[in-house]
Amino acid sequence: MTPPRAPWTRRPASPAEAADPDLFSRTIQANVGIGVGMVFFGMAMGALFAVAYTVCLGRTGGLRARNLALLVAGGGFLGMYLVPFLKYPANPPAIGHEETIKQRSALYLIMVVCSVALLAGAVYLGKYLQKRYGNWNATLLAGAAFVVAIGIVMLLLPQLGHLSYNKANFGNQATETPLPLKDSKGNIVYPGFPADVLFTFRFYSVAAQLILWTALGLIFAPSPSASSTPRGRTRTPPQEPDPVPA
């Protein structure tokens, strides 16, 4: 039986294999890539906006079609992005662990679905309470119900730092944002992720979504389809005045 080698006589480990080169460079991703991605994302959101507008048209009482287009756009921004953003805000690519990407994607999708579903339920609740409490009070009650319901969902869903992999390897943290490294005396020996970079990324993320949904509402509102008569309502042709006798 061959005795084990001493540590200093063992062969050095083979070097790690080099990572495959990126299909697209960082420059292309930051310029052409993000532009193309925003165009296709805008097309997808525009299709969802058109479907939601068609479903709501004629089912919102006396609300004008142009006002409905603006409200649908505001609801899309609120339900599809802003509310999920409050629970799981956007992060740069440098934040997040590869081992938790599936869990993070599933949690964000659950948050989006719950946000949209509860927002639609709040609209239906407001319409149901309108006859009893009036338009203003019904809107306040439906909004309060939405806030309470979505707050419960946010409390039930875990923080990203509380995922099993993150707790096992990095402790019980709130997020996956890299924190500063400290020595035994509490002195920072290596800084964490820059807070200004994180704020700027999230600010531009919210601004891009706000511009997208505002553009959808403002462009669609003056269109002929938004000026048409809702289903279930017929236009009364203008009556000609009676001829004045000579």
Task: Report a brief summary of the structure.
The protein has 246 residues and is mainly α. The chain has 6 helices and 2 strands.
Blueprint of the fold:
Elements: H1 26-56, H2 65-87, H3 101-156, H4 164-170, E1 181-182, E2 188-190, H5 195-220, H6 224-227
Antiparallel strand pairs: 1-2
Overview of this protein structure:
60% of the residues lie in helices and 2% in strands. The chain has 246 residues and is mainly alpha-helical. The chain has helices at residues 26-56, 65-87, 101-156, 164-170, 195-220, 224-227, and strands spanning 181-182, 188-190. The protein is built from six helices and two strands, in the order ααααββαα. Strand 1 and strand 2 (188-190) form a beta hairpin. It has a two-stranded antiparallel sheet with strand order 1-2.
Spatial shape: globular
Q: Strand order within the widest sheet?
A: 1-2
The biggest beta sheet reads:
2 strands, antiparallel
What is the overall pLDDT average? Answer: 81
Low-confidence stretches: 4-11
Give a count of the beta strands, DSSP E runs of length 2 or more.
2
Report the structural category. Answer: mainly alpha
What portion of residues is helical? Answer: 55-70%
- Give the helices and strands as they follow along the chain: HHHHEEHH
Count of helix runs? 6
Proportion of residues in extended strands: under 5%
End-to-end separation: 130 Å
Q: Output the radius of gyration.
A: 27 Å
